[in-house]
Amino acid sequence: MGNLRLDCAGSATVAPAPIHRFYGTSAWILGDAEVQLNKLAQLEAVHQIAAFPDLHPGPVGVAILSDRVHPHMIGNDIGCGMTVFRTSLSAHKLKPQKLADRLRALQDYTDPVEGQAHLRSAGLPDDLAVTAIGTIGGGNHFCEVQILAETQDVELAAKAGVAKGDVLLFVHSGSRSFGASIFADYAEVGSEGLAAEDERTTAYLKLHDLAVRWASLNRQMIAERAAAALRCDVELVVDSSHNLIERYGDGFLHRKGAAKADVDLVPLAGSRDAKSYLLKPTGNKREALASLAHGAGRKYDRAPCMAGLPSRNQFAMPCHVPLTEVVWSVRTNSSSWKKHHKPTRTLRMFLRSWLRQSWPRVWG
């Protein structure tokens, strides 16, 4: 997944960079993630690190300020982010089974001609991963239908164009195979990174910026395809990346699973059946490096988590209902599975529970 190779990192000749942890002692953080943070702080080019409550091995859930550009710090899913759209659907008229059937019809859907047209309209080359554009991908990526259950800041909600009771689409995806192809060309770059004035740095950042734009368009296409299936209109509320590199003062700010917080609103996705939020950044913590937690994280690194799970034939894999990958149908009572994941309902039960608002989506 493009995690930073820290095993070969040399010791810094100066004091380690400060690590600002935005979580308390009650937060459950895997020890490996803390070890990785400390190793990052020892890199000579690194000046400052901010770590957030969804921190897990990678490390993911961090913002890192460095003098150099480190492709491994953000990995292969360049531009991954979350986008929220308001739909024209009416919450009290929703029919769960009909919604499910319409979304299911989009499974593995791809249209290169449509992809090329969208790429051209966005001012991007029309040969950039045309078979991948408009697809979600795996991992914890998803597209959910949500209801805005509460608005604590009515004025800000109105400014964003949403109100209590609105039906929203929440999309989490990235640059798919396009980002992976860029990272593959820089995979050999170690923890030392690339110098700011290096020609390879300029070339990488140019491709990186294309991938960020591609990923944003990808989320837009996912929402448009979902809207067409649900026979509704969609309107953008907020688009937020959490895997990218930006100029920050005299250095480069690397966000890996850390949302940009220099905007009016930041979406924070709940894990599985937890609540999601739209956050208003305060901007009063310089140590946070203009970043916030992105949510939808995991406590364990993927490899050891899967190694500790029961064999795959003992439980169902994610329901491959396009745009609702967050839904799982678990068929085991294994204590090992429950230790690592919070089981959720089948798609049918998910939709029933959702309409009862036992999975409310809250404005925070």
Describe what you observe in this structure.
The protein is of the alpha+beta class. The protein has one domain: tRNA-splicing ligase RtcB, CATH 3.90.1860. 28% of the residues lie in helices and 21% in strands. The protein contains 10 helices and 14 strands. It has helices spanning 31-41, 71-74, 96-104, 112-121, 154-160, 176-184, 199-230, 302-307, 335-340, 347-355; strands spanning 19-21, 46-56, 60-66, 81-87, 142-150, 167-173, 234-241, 243-248, 251-256, 258-260, 266-268, 277-279, 291-293, 361-362. A 5-stranded mixed beta sheet has the order 1-2-3-9-8, with helices on one face. It has a 5-stranded mixed beta sheet with strand order 7-4-6-5-14. It has a two-stranded antiparallel ribbon with strand order 10-13. Strand 2 and strand 3 (60-66) form a beta hairpin. Helix 6 (176-184) runs antiparallel to helix 7. The radius of gyration is 20 Å and the shape is globular. The chain starts with 18 loop residues before the first strand and ends with a strand. Mean pLDDT is 80; it is low at 311-364.
Short description, anyone?
Helices cover 28% and strands 21% of the residues. The chain is α+β, with helices and mostly antiparallel strands and 364 residues long. The strands form four sheets. A five-stranded mixed sheet has the order 1-2-3-9-8, covered by helices on one side. A five-stranded mixed sheet has the order 7-4-6-5-14.
Q: Quickly give the CATH architecture.
A: Alpha-Beta Complex
Radius of gyration: 20 Å
Category from helices, strands and their pairing: alpha+beta
Q: Give the overall pLDDT as a whole number.
A: 80
Distance between the termini: 31 Å
**Biggest β-sheet description:** 5 strands, mixed
- DSSP summary, beta strand count: 14
Counted by DSSP, the helix tally is 10
Estimate the global geometry from the Cα principal axes. globular
CATH class wording: Alpha Beta
Question: What is the string of helix and strand elements?
Answer: EHEEHEHHEHEHHEEEEEEEHHHE
Q: Which regions have little confidence, pLDDT < 50, spanning 5+ residues?
A: 311-364
Q: Helix fraction?
A: 25-40%
CATH fold annotation:
tRNA-splicing ligase RtcB
- Specify the CATH homologous superfamily: tRNA-splicing ligase RtcB
Biggest sheet strand line-up: 1-2-3-9-8
Please report which band the strand proportion falls in: under 5%, 5-15%, 15-25%, 25-35%, 35-45% or over 45%: 15-25%
The total tally of domains equals 1
